[in-house]
């Protein structure tokens, strides 16, 4: 596909999933990389540089994955800028327009190398040298300030506690601005509440995960800025009727949002339905938690210093723990539609809510006039037909 941010593009005769409703037959005009007009397809419109008839397709806001470790054989912990670009190119085919490379606890040198690569690709994308691709939005540190008792597949040798602000110097950030910085933490670790307070002061997104925190500790964490939860229900104390912990707390608080891995493995489809009903689509975000094996099929993979097996879509390490997933955001969207979510629900969970979590919702995450034209069009079988990033027609499976 051709085009640039300066190209005027008209997308005609599509179904458009907007924040409050779906237009069954709409036109969408893109100018200077943004959504200029959304109007009825019977209305007259002046010719555009590009004119595409999308009859039979449904357009959603581009998906945003805030928790992804890699794909197509690339582990972001070991990746150079070109490797990360391969992931960004793959994600386009899955409807993802923005993502946060997610790092696991590791030696300091690994962190520094990873952040240099992330920053370099962000710079290249900003300059337009590496487009079309799904945009790298910043970085997500899953740990190292988490609870050893809920380590999941993370390596406890690199876990840390928090004593003073200098401890955060061990978590480098991309030099390219703006860059979203997010971290998953357990507020019950030594210094955990002060850690959340310091992260809030620095403008980081704090997410509670890999935790055994009590309700009292969680309340304190929320007071100082932690109001999101990482892969809800996974790697946290199970729900118990006499000992309410993270799950009961997350379900009970309307001011707390949760992200979920909707793969049918991390969470049973029945539980996905339950969360949709109890928590609601306006407080849930979909993530992939995808590892390097994603897109490669079953096999044994050397990831994070150990062998991770993938068998019939399920990952496991030598300890028998689930070690991330091999789904994409598109798979998660399909799963949620299958368990009863509406198209409006999945637009919220896959785009609007992740954008709001990252503080980007004024610019992207929904189909509204004036917002960045980050879009994905799905056909009747839930396959990606078209992905638009910043007004650029970045990926197309349309027949010429």
Question: Explain this structure to me?
Answer:
With 400 residues, the chain is of the alpha/beta class. The protein contains 8 helices and 22 strands. The strands form 5 sheets. Strands 1, 2, 3, 4, 5, 20, 21 and 22 form an 8-stranded mixed sheet that branches. It starts with 8 loop residues before the first strand and ends with a strand.
Set down the secondary structure blueprint.
Blueprint: E1 9-17, E2 22-31, E3 34-40, E4 50-53, E5 58-61, E6 63-68, E7 70-71, E8 74-75, H1 81-92, E9 96-103, H2 108-127, E10 135-136, E11 138-142, E12 180-185, H3 192-201, E13 205-208, H4 215-223, E14 228-229, H5 246-252, E15 257-261, H6 269-278, E16 284-287, E17 299-303, E18 306-311, E19 314-316, H7 329-338, H8 343-357, E20 375-378, E21 384-389, E22 392-396
Parallel strand pairs: 1-4, 1-5, 6-9, 9-10, 9-11, 11-12, 12-13, 14-15, 15-16
Antiparallel strand pairs: 1-2, 2-3, 5-20, 7-8, 17-18, 18-19, 20-21, 21-22
Helix pairs in contact: 1-2, 7-8
Mean pLDDT: 95
The CA-CA distance between the termini, in Å, is 10 Å
Structural class: alpha/beta
The DSSP helix count reads 8
- Provide the low-confidence segments as ranges: none
Number of strands: 22
Topology order in helix (H) and strand (E) letters: EEEEEEEEHEHEEEHEHEHEHEEEEHHEEE
Radius of gyration: 20 Å
Biggest sheet character: 8 strands, mixed
Strand content: 25-35%
The amount of helix comes to: 10-25%
Outline: globular
């Amino acid at each position: 596909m051709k085009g640039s941010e300066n190209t005027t593009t008209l997308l005609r005769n599509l179904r458009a999933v907007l924040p409050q409703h779906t237009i069954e037959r709409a036109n969408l005009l893109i100018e200077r990389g943004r959504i200029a007009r959304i109007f009825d397809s019977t209305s007259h419109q002046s010719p555009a540089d590009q004119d595409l008839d999308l009859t039979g397709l449904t357009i959603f806001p581009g998906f945003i994955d805030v928790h992804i470790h890699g794909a197509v054989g690339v582990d972001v912990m070991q990746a150079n800028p070109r490797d990360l670009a391969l992931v960004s190119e793959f994600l386009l085919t899955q409807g993802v327009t923005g993502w946060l490379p997610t790092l696991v606890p590791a030696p300091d040198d690994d962190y520094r190398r990873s952040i240099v690569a992330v920053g370099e690709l962000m710079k290249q994308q900003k300059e337009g040298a590496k487009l079309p691709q799904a945009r790298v939005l910043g970085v997500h540190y899953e740990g190292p300030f988490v609870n050893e008792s809920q380590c999941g597949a993370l390596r406890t040798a690199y876990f840390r506690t928090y004593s003073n602000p200098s401890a955060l110097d061990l978590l480098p950030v991309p030099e390219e601005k703006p860059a979203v910085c997010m971290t998953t933490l357990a507020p019950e670790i030594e210094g955990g509440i002060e850690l959340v307070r310091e992260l809030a002061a620095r403008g980081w997104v704090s997410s509670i995960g890999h935790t055994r925190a009590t309700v009292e500790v969680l309340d304190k964490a929320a007071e100082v800025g932690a109001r999101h939860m990482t892969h809800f229900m996974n790697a946290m104390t199970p729900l118990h009727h006499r000992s309410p912990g993270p799950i009961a707390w997350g379900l009970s608080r309307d001011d707390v949002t949760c992200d979920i891995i909707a793969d049918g493995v991390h969470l049973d489809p029945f539980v996905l339905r339950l969360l949709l009903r109890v928590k609601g689509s306006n407080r849930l975000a979909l993530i992939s938690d995808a590892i390097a094996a994603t897109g490669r099929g079953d096999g044994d993979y050397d990831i994070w210093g150990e062998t991770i097996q993938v068998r019939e879509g399920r990952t496991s390490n030598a300890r028998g723990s689930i070690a991330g997933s091999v789904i994409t955001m598109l798979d998660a969207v399909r799963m949620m539609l299958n368990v009863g979510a509406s198209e409006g629900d999945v637009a919220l969970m896959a785009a609007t809510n992740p954008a709001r979590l990252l503080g980007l919702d004024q610019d992207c995450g929904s189909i509204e006039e004036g917002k960045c034209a980050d879009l994905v069009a799905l056909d009747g079988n839930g396959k990606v037909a078209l992905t638009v990033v910043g007004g650029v027609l970045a990926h197309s499976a349309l027949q010429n």
